[in-house]
Amino acid sequence: MASPRILVVDDEADLRELLEITLVRMGLDVDSAATLAQARAFLAQAEYALVLTDMRLPDGLGLELVREVAAAGKNTPIAVVTAYGSADNAVVALKAGAFDYVSKPVVLDELRIMVQSALRLSMPAQEQGGAPGPERRLIGDSAMVQALRAQIARLARSMAPIAITGESGSGKELAAREIHAQSSRASKPFIAVNCGAIPEALMEAEFFGYRKGAFTGAADDRDGFFQAANGGTLMLDEVADLPLAMQVKLLRAIQERRVRKIGATAEEPVDVRLISATHQNLEQCVEAGRFRQDLFYRLNVIELSVPPLRDRVDDLGALTGAILARLAGSGQRASLGPGVLATLHAYAFPGNVRELENILERALAFANDGMIEVGDLSLKGARVSEPVAMAPVAAAVAMAEPAAAGAVPLPNSLPDYLEQVERDIILRALAQTNFNRTQAAQLLGISFRQLRYQMQKLDIHEPET
């Protein structure tokens, strides 16, 4: 098989020669260009596994190549070489669609790592060391989810930092895992860190690690999150909760791609792709002085928004089926009774998919023989769009409400009054069904177990015959 071909674009002959020698020793074929015009000619004639271009060229900017290739719809990854300290240029290139960047003076080990990542993009998943195809983590086929999947597929081909926004429970970590699974880093670690759950005094040690004896209790050397994610992806969840002092240290680690363990005298290189997530508005945090603008600029290179569940209710059936299948996998029988899915469709889900999981798991605990009824859901503040049987207390209040304010006197004891009304309603439902408790529960919109509990509490017994 022919070796992958790389195009090097740089007007400095010495650097161009160094890059050529390094790539050839990696077993790659190399073409070289000194100008944008020469690079365009090469790109018109051949397909490349990677283009490595300097930012500043005699007849323009390497950024033009990035934009031209992206506009042409090609999947050729392009990495840019930026001058030392030109972090802003690197961010601009990544936003324009660059695969990655390396800084001058070029560190050859870092260059080799970046080239290998780019080459893995064209390999089958089996050769990358991953699964034959990415596991489907984002469930549903609504237009929003399909658009989200398409964005993820594009972002997985880049090494640019991604900021995922969305409400709590909407699936931000699932989106991050999907990006990792479809990337060239799929066979390497995915480390997710909840920034709000780490005590401030331990943050530096947790992120960067420490040497033995660096402080009291440091009995052994320990790696931090960056070292644990080396070669893979590091997700910083709830990144807005980072204290300002830690934000400064994190910014340096991102810019230099190096970290220093507590107690160490030298920095060590790390190769991680950063994905950050938060339910807060980071721009507002920047304006309020709670988040550094330069760190925001480095993390928010590409933004990915995860929609709330209320905006993708068409996925409720698929999501509910998947959650119930998982619950049934633990040995429980799990299914939905009549009207349950319609009731879920009418609910706003302020806690999103995570709340749906909690609702179904709790409902299954109350369900009779694994059959979830409407009453088992115990939804609060549900927006009911079609007739759904009311719970006994709610029904009692509705039936007992006078036609006009002040038509009847207020009760001396509201709990006793509601209990009596609830008792009367349950007795009416039982009488209507000849004391068939299953049918009575369905008539009242509650589970059999809930009806049995209410009957015991209100001392309701089947009449003796």
Word description of this protein:
With 465 residues, the protein is of the alpha/beta class. It has 20 helices and 16 strands. The protein has helices at residues 13-25, 36-45, 62-71, 87-96, 108-120, 125-128, 143-155, 172-182, 203-208, 225-228, 244-256, 282-287, 293-299, 316-328, 340-345, 352-366, 392-400, 414-432, 437-444, 448-457, and strands at 5-9, 29-33, 50-54, 56-57, 60-61, 78-82, 100-103, 162-165, 190-194, 233-237, 258-259, 268-269, 273-278, 302-305, 335-336, 371-372. The strands form five sheets. Strands 2-1-3-6-7 form a five-stranded parallel β-sheet, sandwiched between helices. Strands 9-10-13-8-14 form a five-stranded parallel β-sheet. Strands 4-5 form a two-stranded antiparallel sheet. It is elongated and about 100 Å long. The termini are far apart.
The CATH superfamily of the largest domain bears the name: P-loop containing nucleotide triphosphate hydrolases
Class derived from helix and strand content: alpha/beta
**Strand proportion:** 5-15%
- In total, the number of domains comes to 3
Largest sheet, order of strands side by side? Answer: 2-1-3-6-7
CATH topology of the largest domain: Rossmann fold
Radius of gyration, whole Å:
30 Å
Which spans of ≥5 residues are poorly predicted at pLDDT below 50?
Answer: 128-134, 383-407
How many strands, what sense, and barrel or not for the largest sheet?
Answer: 5 strands, parallel
Taking the alpha carbons of the first and last residues, their distance comes to: 89 Å
What is the number of E strands?
16
Q: How would you state the average pLDDT, rounded?
A: 85
The helix content, as a percent range, equals 40-55%
CATH class of the largest domain: Alpha Beta
Shape category: elongated
Q: Helical stretch count? A: 20
Report the CATH architecture of the largest domain: 3-Layer(aba) Sandwich
